[in-house]
Design goal:
Rossmann fold, nucleotide-binding, 13% strand, alpha/beta, 286 residues, Ribosome biogenesis GTPase A, binds guanosine-5',3'-tetraphosphate
Length: 286
């Protein structure tokens, strides 16, 4: 898998941009893709964000396996974060996020009230790798689609803040935090879910990865989607890919069959799915 987007210079720049803006916010909304919650994180996120209170926002829950999403939510809560699963694309408003933030920051808000601030507000920053849905989340969070200029103490002039409600403001994502294709499986997962551009990966590798995954993890869904019988399902993934290629009239152009598997996975032809579970992380935790 190409390592093209991971340049130390890019990372350092993005990291500085994020850390500079972190000073301005009370909490961080880290957006990830529910189908690949870990693969879709920047691996330096914990170092970058540090101790700043964080809500793990598992977006695109409509595309993910609900049981596995529940496992991930429990996992992140155990790690000390707040966690919520959402479908930003189909939600009208995302009031749950400000509500959860206020609940998480209750102690701070109470303290401010006791100091005479009548309606204390919270400021958040939305971060995540490209394509996890940050813009969609922001759009669903803001009340009016206007950017307000902060002129309160501690807020840099001309800083763009989006108003979610009277007491919740969100800062647009600063800098781009790329994922790192540290191992091939991370690249395969990101490619299969459409997080990385088609030019970056080899369709035959990713398609075979997908077919193997669905054959093992969601056999009924695969069987139904492609009208497969027991004999088909008993084949090794590579042989099944060859058989599918022939069935679809692509002959020996196996990459076309692989591309079709990728397309179908992204379109939801196999139903909702999740490519990783917290147990996969054993021994790999940050
Ligand atoms: P980014 O700012 O983090 O880069 O992501 P962005 O909001 O642009 O979202 C990336 C893609 O993911 C978009 O699709 C968006 O519609 C989709 N998306 C965001 N949230 C959700 C969700 O909760 N569920 C589903 N199913 N999709 C979501 P796109 O193909 O790039 O554009 P389009 O198809 O919306 O035109």
């Amino acid at each position: 898998m190409a390592q093209i987007q991971w340049f130390p210079g890019h990372m350092a720049k993005a990291r500085n941009q994020v850390q500079e803006k972190l000073k301005l916010v009370d909490l961080v909304l880290e957006i990830v893709d529910s189908r690949v919650p870990e693969a879709s994180r920047n691996p330096m996120m914990n170092q970058i964000v540090g101790q700043k209170p964080r809500i793990m926002v598992l977006n695109k829950k409509d595309l993910a396996d609900p049981q596995k999403t529940a496992e991930w939510l429990a996992y992140y809560r155990k790690q000390g974060y707040e966690a919520i699963a959402i479908d930003a694309q189909h939600a009208r408003r995302l009031q749950q996020i400000p509500q959860l933030a206020r609940q998480m920051m209750k102690a701070k808000l109470e303290k401010q009230k006791s100091r005479g601030i009548r309606n204390p507000g919270l400021r958040a920053m939305c971060i995540g790798i490209p394509n996890v849905g940050k813009s969609t989340v922001l759009n669903r969070l803001v009340k009016k689609n206007i950017a307000v200029t902060g002129n309160r103490p501690g807020v840099t002039k001309n800083q763009q803040w989006l108003t979610a409600d009277d007491t919740f403001q969100v800062l647009d994502t600063p800098g781009i935090l790329w994922p790192k294709f540290e191992d091939e499986s991370v690249g395969n997962k990101l490619a299969l879910t459409g997080a990385i551009a088609d030019t970056v990966y080899q369709a035959d590798t990713v398609g075979l990865f997908g077919l193997t995954f669905f054959q093992q993890g969601y056999p009924q869904a695969l069987r139904k989607a492609y009208g497969l019988n027991d004999d088909d399902m008993a084949q090794k993934p590579a042989d099944l890919m060859i058989a599918l290629s022939q069935k679809w009239g692509y002959g020996e152009e196996y990459n076309r069959a692989a591309e079709r598997v990728i397309f179908d996975a992204r379109q939801g032809k196999f139903g909702p799915f999740t490519l990783e579970v917290p147990g996969d992380l054993d021994g790999h935790a940050e």
